[in-house]
Amino acid sequence: MSYQPCPPSTPEPCPQVCPPPPPAPPCRVKPIMRGLHWAQTKLIIAQGFGLAFLGGAAYYVLISLPRMEAYKDFYAKGEFEDWADEMAKKGLFQSVPVESLKR
């Protein structure tokens, strides 16, 4: 469909009516409706996995690693024999009679 200009005006008592120009092409791209729900679902699932990974990594780095280091230090520096002897002297162990301990 091509646009043709109005022919030259002639001296007639009735005004001449030109055909309207064709509409301009749309400026925006039409949305893709086919498969839109599936595309959005895939995006949301990918974002969920990404956030879950980041949350797990943050928990590991900020909570688990310091906790493991604290346990390592506790068991490396712990004086368990001395602590057990002290608790036995205080009578906290039922299986160790207080009289059998050296004071």
What do you see in this structure?
The protein has 103 residues and is mostly helical. It contains two helices and no strands. It is rod-shaped. It starts with 35 loop residues before the first helix and ends in a 14-residue tail after the last helix.
Offer a quick outline of the entry:
This protein has 103 residues and is mostly helical.
Task: List descriptors.
103 residues; mainly alpha
Backbone structural class: mainly alpha
Outline type: rod-shaped
Roughly what percent helix?
Answer: 40-55%
Order of helices and strands: HH
Radius of gyration: 43 Å
Low-confidence stretches: none
- Tell me the total number of β-strands: 0
* Gap between N and C termini: 113 Å
Q: Could you tell me the mean pLDDT?
A: 84
The quaternary structure here is: single chain
The number of distinct helices, counting runs of at least 4 residues, comes to 2
Task: Characterize the largest beta sheet: strand count, sense, and whether it forms a barrel.
Answer: none
- In terms of DSSP E residues, the strand content is under 5%
Question: Which helices and strands, and how do they pair?
Answer:
Layout: H1 36-77, H2 80-89
